[in-house]
Amino acid sequence: MRLRHIEVFHAIMQVGTISGAAQVLHISQPAVTKVLQHAELQLGMPLFERVRGKLYPKPEAHRLFAETEKLNRDLQGIRRLAASLKGRAVETVRLVSTPTIAISVLPQAMTAWRGDFPQARCELATHHTSEIVNALRLGEADLALSLQDPRHPGIVAEPIAHGMLTVMAPAGTWSEEECARPFTADGLTGELIGLNDGDPLGEIVVAACEAQGVQPVYRTVVQTYQIARSLVEAGAGIAVLDPFTAASADPARVQCRQWSPAMPVHLYLLSASHSPLSHGARELANCIGATARACLEKGS
């Protein structure tokens, strides 16, 4: 099937009529009919049953629709890009981030970036790092943010900010003297909030505790750093978190101490090695790095 065939076929599958497809595609009904007939002729089989002006897809049409769906989305994306370039608009910047950075750093960074790129289009999404790598490799994102270096041959990982592993507790847990001292693993007692098995930060904490001969007991285990932070703010227990999440917590409701021995946590800008960043994407990355560093300085 040709690209025009696929476009018309998908429009008919979505609206169910020749007239509806014509309206969606902004072409005449005879043009839709002609393209559909040509597609069926090339395939050597009918794709629809015609009943009282409506088209009902045959099983072969459903299978073909599933196989060509991504190609049709790509085609629509190409058309939007062509229209954008024709209008001399700034290209779309597609950013994917892990949830913790999307909540703690991105809002302020986006606000700052918008001052210089008021007309730019930015698409934001959140994924875990393994999904981010796939999105970058498949060209579904331009840049990404993670607290992990995926160490993938097709991904460039650039550290743009870093802080230290942080222990957070509800306000009033520690005295002023205790707050001035680093926190060691043997202090992980009482009500503790842990991270899911397999979480990279959680694994660092487990290894650090084992190195100090400590086996903390977590009665509450969460999937995201934001949930852990919210629980600490509500007085539910102590958590070991990344510095960006810790810095975004309400200082009136929590206390923070640096983990000892000190362990750096980096914020990485990720991009595909075969796809250099556009000017708009690079400036957004600069704003994110500056915002992340300012966030850590404010929280220290």
Automatic annotation (TrEMBL):
Listed Gene3D superfamilies: Periplasmic binding protein-like II, Winged helix-like DNA-binding domain superfamily/Winged helix DNA-binding domain
Alphabetized Pfam families for the sequence: HTH_1 (PF00126), LysR_substrate (PF03466)
Residue ranges annotated for the HTH lysR-type domain, each copy included: 1-58
UniProt cross-references to InterPro entries, sorted A to Z: LysR_HTH_N (IPR000847), LysR_subst-bd (IPR005119), WH-like_DNA-bd_sf (IPR036388), WH_DNA-bd_sf (IPR036390)
Keywords assigned by UniProt, alphabetized: DNA-binding, Transcription, Transcription regulation
Origin superkingdom: Bacteria
Similarity section: Belongs to the LysR transcriptional regulatory family.
Name by which UniProt lists this protein: LysR family transcriptional regulator
Species: Massilia consociata
